[in-house]
Amino acid sequence: MTMDLYRKYEKQTGITFTAEDSLLKSVKAYPREELMTDRPLTFGPSIDELLEYYGSEKKFALFAQPFANLKVSLSRPKGDEPKSLALNSMTDVRLYSEVIRFTSLPPHMKDIASQFVHDVMGNRSYVTIHWRFDKLDFMASCLDNRATIKRQRFCSYLRSIKPVQIAYAIVYGLKEINRKRRGDVTTDDVIKDVYIATPPSQFKLMKKLDGILRRYNITLNYGVHLRRYVLKTFNHCDWLLPNLNEVLSNTEMALCMQSHTFYRAVPSSWSSNVVLSKNKSKFDRPILNLIGLQKAKPGTVH
User: For the chain, how far is it from start to end, CA to CA, in angstroms?
Assistant: First the structure.
C-alpha cells in the first residue's frame, strides 16, 4: 500500500498516520467478531466519529483497503468451463480467473448490446475505445497537491492531447486493422464503425471527434446514442429507469467485449474487466499508445 491513501485519510480526519514500516508490533487489534457484527465501520469525515467508534484516544492501526492489497495477478479464464472446482487446491490466480468466468455480465445486457449493434450500427464489425480521462473523475487526482511527480507528468500529457490527435489515432488504428482484413480471404469488408465508452462529461469532446471522423467516412457512436436507443426501445421495462446508469455502463462494457478491437484506458479497472472477458485481438492496446503511434495526418480509411 502506498502512503497516498493514508494521506487521503489524514486529510479527511485530521489524524496523523504512521508509516507502515514503523508501526508498533504491540498494537492491540479489536476482536474480529465485534468489528464484523456489532460495529460496522463506515469511514467518517472527522476524528470525532473515529473516537466514538473506538471509545478510546489510544493509538490505533488502520489497514486501508485490505482486499485491494492482495494484488492477485489478473488472468483471463482458460479452456472450457469446468464442471466442478477444487477450491482448496487452486492458486489465487486460477481462482480469480474462474471468478471472472462465472460472474460475467447479465445475459440481457449482452442482448441489449447485440441489438444496438444490429439496429444502430447495421450489424457491422466495429472497434471500441474506453476514454475515461474526464475532469470530474480521473483528472481530479491531478488537482491534489499530494499527487506524485509521475502522476503530475501523466496529467500534463493528458491535458496536452487535442481532439484531432485522438481522431487521427482512431483513423490510424482502423487503417492498421483493415490492411490485415484485406489480406484475409474469409472477409472483404473494412471496419469504419467506432463506439467510445466515456463519461457524460466527455460528450462535448465526442461531438468534436465525430466531426473530424466524418471526414474519413468513419461513423462514431457513444453514450448519447446508446442512451437514446435504450430509452426508446425498452421504455416499457419497469426496471430500466431506476437502474439506467448501471444498465448503460454494463451495456457499454458488453459492446466493448463484443467488438473486433478494444483500445483500453490505462489505468482503469473497467477496461481491465473488458480485457479479461473479451476474445483477444492482436490489435488490442491502450488508446494512449495508439495516440503515441500516430505522428502525422492520416490518409483515408479504405
Answer: 48
List the one residue out of 256, 224, 242, 235 whose CA is nearest residue 109. Answer: 256
For residues 207 and 118, membership in a common domain is answered with yes
**Domain tally, the chain:** 3
Which domain range does residue 85 map to?
74-102
pLDDT tens, residue order, the chain (302 aa): 455 666 666 666 666 665 544 443 434 444 444 444 444 445 554 667 667 766 777 766 666 666 666 667 778 888 888 888 888 888 888 888 888 888 888 899 999 999 999 999 999 999 999 998 887 777 777 776 667 788 888 888 888 999 999 999 999 999 999 988 877 655 557 899 999 999 998 999 999 999 999 999 999 999 999 999 999 999 888 888 888 999 999 999 999 999 999 999 988 889 988 998 898 888 899 999 989 876 556 655 54
Do 115 and 38 reside in the same domain of the chain? no
Pairing type for strands 261-264 and 219-221 reads unpaired
Query: In the sheet that 261-264 helps form, which strands lie side by side, from edge to edge?
Result: 219-221, 193-197, 127-130, 261-264, 285-286
pTM of the predicted protein model:
0.74
Q: Does 53 map to a domain?
A: yes
